[in-house]
Amino acid sequence: MQSVNQKMETKIRKLAIIAGDGDIPIKLVAECIKKNINYVLILIEGHGKDLKKLYKPDFVVSLSKIGKAIKFSKSAKVSDIIMVGGVKRPSFKKMIPDLWTAKFLAKIGSKISGDNSILSNLAKELEREGFNILSAEDILPNLICPKGVIGKFKPDDNNKKDIKIGFEIAKNIGENDIGQSLVIQNGLVLAVEAAEGTDSMILRSKSLKIEEKGGIFIKVLKPNQDNRMDRPVVGVNTLKAVLNSGLDGLALEANSIFILNYNSVVEFADNNNLFIIGV
């Protein structure tokens, strides 16, 4: 079996990709096929519409029936699991869980502080079941944002001040598992990411700007976040929202954020006078 490198070749015996929404699961499956990595695709029910058009799932699982996915994975001789893609958080009150999921929810009931805590606890339980939890960058290392300026344009002195302030605030917000992104202009936070998602938050900030031009979009990894799961992503659509809102650019936590379609993102930034920097 081939893989990304020799370490991965000996590490992965059989991989289960548990997939939600977005483009990362599509790229991950394509890379597994390219590298001849032995995998099964488990699709979360109600998710992965575009993924399903390209690749037939081996198993579809409801979020209320995690035990069934575990049983399937064990019967398929899965050794490693990657959980990737956006997932709509279900209403726990309306769920009719299987026995495994019921025990899991009862166990973490008092520990839930947000989506990140749920995912982190789920990873620990899957490890107790004997699985090795991997991250998407184990297969797709080139997606990770590097440190430094990316592209032609650099932040100016005012931008650098906002980056310093904004990163500290974003980390404090992330500490409470609220969001991973914000928009800041001249030291004033205009918008913080919540349930509406990144792009909508950026566009919402436009009406709150002090000046028509200026401001920065900042995205970080939440403190104590299990970086094997739910890693933040930016792509061309993010940059379009930044441009439409009249912001100067993006500051991303280096070695923590995925850049989807890297070359297209850099090209769009360069063509529209936007800076991107990994901090």
What are the SSEs and their pairings?
Elements: H1 6-11, E1 15-19, H2 24-34, E2 39-44, H3 49-54, E3 59-61, H4 66-75, E4 80-84, H5 99-108, H6 115-128, E5 132-134, E6 148-150, H7 157-175, E7 181-185, E8 188-192, H8 198-205, E9 216-219, E10 233-234, H9 236-244, E11 249-252, E12 258-259, H10 262-271, E13 275-278
Output the radius of gyration.
20 Å
Main-sheet strand order equals: 6-13-11-9-7-8
User: Per the principal axes of the C-alpha atoms, what is the gross shape?
Assistant: globular
Question: pLDDT under 50 segments (min length 5)?
Answer: 1-10
Distinct helical segment count:
10
**Amount of helix:** 25-40%
Q: Give the N-to-C terminal Cα separation.
A: 36 Å
Q: Which strand-content bin applies to the residues?
A: 15-25%
Question: Overview of this structure, please?
Answer:
- The chain is of the alpha/beta class.
- It has helices at about 5-10, 25-35, 50-55, 65-75, 100-110, 115-130, 155-175, 200-205, 235-245, 260-270, and strands spanning about 15-20, 40-45, 60, 80-85, 130-135, 150, 180-185, 190, 215-220, 235, 250, 260, 275-279.
- Strands 6-13-11-9-7-8 form a 6-stranded mixed β-sheet, with helices on both faces. Strands 3-2-1-4-5 form a 5-stranded parallel β-sheet, sandwiched between helices. It has a two-stranded parallel sheet with strand order 10-12.
- Helix 2 links the parallel strand 1 (about 15-20) and strand 2 (about 40-45).
- Residues about 1-10 have low confidence and may be disordered.
